[in-house]
Amino acid sequence: MTIDKFKTKLILFLLTLSVIFWIGGSIYRAIIAYTLFEPFSLIIKSELTYETLRQTLVLIGNINVYLIISYPLTLILTVLFLKFSRVNLKNEGWLFMTILILAIFFPVEVYLSYLDTNYAIMVLLSEFDTNQALSLLIQRISALGGLPAIGFLCYLTIFWLITFKPLKRKLNYESEGERVSVTAG
Fold first, then answer.
1. pLDDT digit string (tens) for 56-88?
2. CA distances from 182 to 1, 20, 91, 123, 179 (A)
3. Is the pTM of this model over 0.90?
4. Residue 21 · residue 66 · CB < 8 Å
């Protein structure tokens, strides 16, 4: 796969930035959120003060805003990249698998984005009750069982797919009696 057009390269650059914000923000939010709880449970740590807890909940709400914007932007830019690059998914199996992973976990991400939006609206746009915010955060963490964690591991697999490009079809052409192997793209 070769990328020739300036527009396609620009879209790929913006896609890379949105993925960095989305995946990086997800990791950052998970680290912040799980520091509130005792290890391997959803019990709040006893050493946290009320103000620390409240500020951490606001910080998670701010991170959610970035994630609510970056995930749809990632999807839009992915579609635009596929449209403008005119890549043949039959020849680029790694890209097909990437699109498949994004498509499979789309309903999960939509539901989690809904929960994140409710949380962000409550925490950032009103004087919120800390217990209610914690309840929403715990609901978000425990939503859909382990499916969000599986989705996140699949998203990390996408980085492996993009780096090593497995399932890339090689086309064979016969030219004047010689067999020539050419990489598709």
1. 999 999 999 999 999 999 999 999 999 999 888
2. 12, 33, 12, 56, 10
3. no
4. yes
